[in-house]
Each structure stands twice: as C-alpha cells, then as structure tokens.
C-alpha cells in the first residue's frame, strides 16, 4: 500500500511523543476514531487526497470533525499537513494502533462466526485467546454463514477451527475413505 513506510515512521514518532507526554492511550483512542471515520467516509477520504483543496480547509474540516482529540493528535495532523502527507492520515492512524498494541502486548484476534457475536461470547473467545497466547487481544468479528456454526479463531499464525463446516468436511473425507462405507 502506498505510503505505508512513511506512515510507520510517523506513527512511531507520534507514539514516542505520546509516551513522553503520558497520553499514549488517549492518542490510541483518537487514532481508532480517525481510522474508522476516514475509512467509513469516502467523501472525507477524497477531500484528504484532493490536491485542489487547500491545506487550511483540510485542517479546519479535520479539527471540526475531531474537535475532542488530544493535543498530540492535533499536532500530528498539523505535521502531516505541513509535510503534504495528510492523504495518509488513516494509514498513520492504523500503524499507530498496531504499534500501540505491540507495545502493550495486545494481539489482534479475528473470529469468524455464522452469526454476530454477543458480549458473552466475545468474553468467552477473549478468554480462549488469552489461554492460547498468554496475552490480551482486541477482537474483530467477521460474519460468514458458510461455516454453518461454531467459529474460526485466528491470532497471528495460530488458527483454531471449531466450525461445523470443517467437521462436516472431515466426516465426509473419513466416510469417503472408509472401505466399508464406500462399498454400500
């Protein structure tokens, strides 16, 4: 993805400054908000990448949308505007979140289920992640009805597949390769 290396450098610098000012957690919340907002608004993303719109206009729009952000986050927006890198704001935000999570030993867990998770199931799955990895995790839920039931949990390289479709596939393979059943 274009701008990823620059975004990593900006995110590292922002995280370092936020740690020095004891506001890393608040900046992380800001970055989560910025990332979600920019990715969910095509108009905002187009405005940030447009060479026609002046930086002063971009700054006023961003500060109006994100008026309750931390001073470190406002400074990051200013630096990105000054350096002509405001188009990668959402990438910087994502990189900050990744680096913040690594710093705090929080892993990203992706759970695929047939139906959306409720709070109770989320807590059970987060406990399972802690049991398997020994670290905390943030959870992303993907709904895929093709797994029929159960769940597929991915944390880094680790995958725990407890889906109904996997069990049905395994059972079908066992019955197909069974010499007694194949003769019937």
TrEMBL record:
It comes from the Bacteria. Coiled coil: none annotated. One of its GO terms (molecular function) is proton-transporting ATP synthase activity, rotational mechanism. Keywords: ATP synthesis, Cell membrane, CF(1), Hydrogen ion transport, Ion transport, Membrane, Transport. Its main location: membrane. One of its GO terms (cellular component) is proton-transporting ATP synthase complex. It is a peripheral membrane protein. It is found in: Cell membrane; Membrane. Gene3D superfamilies: N-terminal domain of the delta subunit of the F1F0-ATP synthase. NCBIfam families: ATP_synt_delta (TIGR01145). This protein is part of the stalk that links CF(0) to CF(1). It either transmits conformational changes from CF(0) to CF(1) or is implicated in proton conduction. Belongs to the ATPase delta chain family. This is ATP synthase subunit delta. It comes from Christiangramia sabulilitoris. The gene is atpH.
């Amino acid at each position: 993805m274009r701008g990823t290396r620059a975004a990593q450098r900006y995110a590292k610098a922002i995280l370092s400054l936020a740690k020095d000012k004891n506001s890393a957690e608040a900046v992380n919340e800001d970055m989560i908000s910025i990332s979600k907002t920019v990715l969910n608004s095509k108009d905002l993303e187009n405005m940030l990448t447009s060479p026609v719109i002046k930086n002063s206009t971009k700054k006023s729009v961003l500060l109006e949308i994100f008026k309750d952000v931390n001073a470190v986050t406002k400074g990051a927006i200013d630096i990105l505007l000054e350096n002509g890198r405001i188009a990668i704001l959402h990438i910087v935000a994502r990189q900050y979140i990744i680096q913040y999570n690594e710093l705090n030993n929080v892993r990203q867990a992706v759970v695929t289920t047939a139906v959306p998770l409720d709070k109770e199931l989320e807590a059970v799955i987060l406990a399972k992640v802690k049991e398997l990895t020994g670290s905390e995790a943030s959870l992303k839920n993907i709904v895929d009805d093709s797994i029929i039931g159960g769940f597929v949990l991915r944390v880094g390289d680790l995958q725990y597949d407890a889906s109904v479709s996997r069990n049905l596939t395994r059972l079908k393979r066992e019955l197909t390769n069974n010499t007694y059943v194949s003769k019937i």
